Amino acid sequence: MAESQLLSVVRIWAAVAWADGVLAEPEAEGLRRLIRTADLTPDEREASARFLESQVELPETYLTTMSPEARKGVYRAACRMAVVDHSYSDTEKKLLTRLRDLLAIPQDVAHEIEADVPGMTAS
Questions:
Q1: What pTM does this model have?
Q2: Is residue 24 a part of any domain in this protein?
Q3: Neighbours of 14 (CB within 10 A)
Q4: 40-68: pLDDT as tens digits
Q5: Boundaries of domain holding 39
Q6: What is the rounded distance in angstroms from the CA atom of residue 57 to the CA atom of residue 98?
Q7: Is 27 within 8 Å of 55 (Cβ atoms)?
Q8: In a domain, 120, yes or no
Q9: Are 106 and 64 in contact (CB under 8 A)?
Q10: What is the per-residue pLDDT across 9-26, written as a single tens digit (0 to 9) for each?
Q11: How many domains is the chain built from?
């Protein structure tokens, strides 16, 4: 069975949090809060909890069926997740570039989003 769009979004945020190979406590807490409050089924909540246990890769699902505003929201949240631990590594930058492409967000729009995220320098 295909992964729900919401579970894919949780997976994306987990992949960003794990991008540098470490899940820092601020990242873990952000994911726990998301998992607690998201409208997930019990199975999806269980699957999401496993994202806290070991490194997660970006889903290869294309989320372009979401509205442009929703895709920008996913990207904005992923950017925030990337800097929540006050560290923004090259690995995280590469992962966000890949995510931007998966979400079909134009580079200029991505730069605007990045410029609005405290602690992130637009590249």
A1: 0.72
A2: yes
A3: 28
A4: 999 999 999 999 999 988 876 656 677 88
A5: 5-115
A6: 11
A7: no
A8: no
A9: no
A10: 888 889 888 988 889 898
A11: 1
